[in-house]
Design a protein that fits this description.
- This protein has one domain.
- Helix 3 packs antiparallel against helix 5, helix 3 packs parallel to helix 6 and helix 6 packs parallel to helix 10.
- Helix content is 77%, strand content 0%.
Length: 251
């Protein structure tokens, strides 16, 4: 746990010193919120704001996790990280938590942007529905951490981490219904989105407190636990393979 906390704090400091990541984290939620509000006729509801924030959080999770391991490889410290006596799981968990921590800013920035620019902060929603949306957003953030840990195993063994993030960014939040409800998508695409925790957490944004809302978030939490467990297994497997084969530098 101490190693994960240390990795979290270190990664937050490193990301805050990366001009690319700082500008992306600052501007992404503002652009997404503006697009979503204009699609809604200039009105930014609570659903629109949280959806825009989750879009920014997904971008920071993808690019943050990829950049963390890419920079470790680029600076020559990935081999030291893998060759250390500790497993990769704790550092990678810390890296993912750091990116999702910045993702929380995305929701706050989207809310402030909607309040200042569009003169609305989602106040038209009932308090109960707004609370349900906030809880669903927290569950979605937990799912992003689990997916970040899962993807890290792939990022360790490839030099194309940044290219993969470009491929995954927009399709994922589209098929998961972050911008528009997944029910409006082509049914096969909606099915693909349901294999991700985000694909179940975002439909809960459109549901009030109740049985359906709780069941939807329950599935999201189960998938989150599954992705985290799979990520831990894959990271330990990758850790063992690169130690035995000594091919990390060549990948």
């Amino acid at each position: 746990m101490r190693l994960a906390v240390a990795a979290w704090l270190l990664q937050l400091r490193l990301l805050s010193r990366s001009p690319f990541f700082v500008w992306m984290a600052l501007l992404t939620p503002l652009v997404y919120c503006s697009l979503a509000a204009m699609m809604s006729g200039g009105h930014a509801s609570t659903r629109t704001i949280i959806g825009a924030g989750l879009m920014g959080a997904w971008s920071t999770t993808l690019f943050g996790a990829a950049e963390a391991l890419f920079m470790q490889r680029f600076s020559g410290t990935l081999e030291l990280l893998v060759g250390g006596p500790r497993s990769l799981v704790a550092p990678v968990l810390g890296f993912s938590l750091a990116t999702v921590t910045l993702g929380v800013y995305s929701v706050g920035a989207a809310w402030l942007w909607a309040l200042l620019v569009f003169r609305t902060g989602g106040a038209s929603e009932d308090a109960g529905d707004a609370g349900a949306m906030v809880i669903a957003a927290v569950v979605a953030m937990a799912g992003l951490v689990a997916v970040g840990v899962f993807l890290a195993a792939l990022y360790v063994v490839t030099r194309k981490a940044m290219e993969l993030t470009n491929i995954l960014e927009y399709p994922i939040w589209l098929i998961c219904g972050v911008l528009v409800p997944s029910a409006t998508l082509w049914p096969p695409l909606a099915i693909v989105g349901r294999v991700l925790p985000l694909g179940w957490a975002t439909p809960a944004l459109d549901l009030p407190f109740g049985t359906d809302w709780a069941a939807t978030l329950g599935v999201s939490l189960l998938l989150t636990a599954g992705y985290f467990a799979a990520g831990v297994v894959l990271l330990r497997r990758v850790d063992a393979l690169v130690r035995v084969r000594g091919t990390l530098r060549l990948r």
